[in-house]
UniProtKB/TrEMBL annotation:
The lineage of its organism: Bacteria, Pseudomonadati, Pseudomonadota, Gammaproteobacteria, Oceanospirillales. Residues 313-336 are annotated as: Disordered. Residues 325-336 have a biased composition (Acidic residues). InterPro entries: AKR, Aldo-Keto_reductase, NAD(P)_OxRdtase_dom_sf, NADP_OxRdtase_dom. This is Aldo/keto reductase.
Amino acid sequence: MSTLFVRLKDVASPPIGLGCMNLSHGYGSPVPEPEAIRALDEAFDMGYRHFDTATLYGATANEKVVGQALAGKRNQVMLASKCGLAIDPELGKRVIDGRPETLKRQCEASLQRLRTDHLDLYYLHRLDRQVPIEESVGALGRLVDEGKIGAIGLSEISAATLRRAVAERPIAAVQSEYSLWTRNPEIALSAACREAGTALVAFSPLGRGFLAGAVRNSERLEENDMRRGLPRFSAENLPRNLRQLEKLEALADELGVTTGQLALAWLRAKGDDVIPIPGSRSITHMRENLAAGTLDLDSATVARLNAMMTPDQVAGDRYSAEQQADVDTEEFEPQD
């Protein structure tokens, strides 16, 4: 059982959670609600117990779907959501707002959509640079005191911000993009999490589908698929990255597993305090991802994976300059 579950909830859980965003947000057209609910039902039945959603996803639609799917199962799962980043219905765009009154209002609305009286883990989705982190964390702390959330999480933040936050309140988890081809947490955040006793929850642990071999041609992605705007999926960079993927495919074939399972097992080898939350629209892929929780890699295999897709081998930044401006994470120095 992961340290995160030990701290938050007495739930027997696999070491891999489920990111629910893909069903409603980011990767083209949303999955129709009945199909999304069926996928979440199947996920529960196959063993998932850690479900992650957010106010942002699908402009609140994802929370509604998760709430319906988990109705009657609430005490058997660890439920996480996020605040401080939402779609403004009047502006029609994402707005970062970490003011205490906003976080309280968003939490109460999330509880209604998720059909529950408390969230086990509630993240500040993005740092609001206009609001001191201490004020945002203080507001989340008051929600803990009121019993509306079990613990505080932060998302896409730096080691320095985490250290400021834990001086205000304990931080149970930090969510950061972490995978074979996105190793930014290794710059400083991973060490800061361990220093604070904070779990590192890895979102996009399959490289937004790339490490599972799901993207061979970005032109085939739907027009509203967010990956079209990410540098690593550009027409210039994707072919170079696919050549790096071939090394992972060869090792996966040698071991008799999928590339996705191998990528998840590599993250699990980082320690029990690193918790991958892959997302998928496919029930088959959800099952494959969960099975990676039983795959233990020997030190030689981990070393081979460590040498793959290092920052100097990956073509393109994680985000565009505009997208990077919205996050607080450390970045690797540009390669010469």
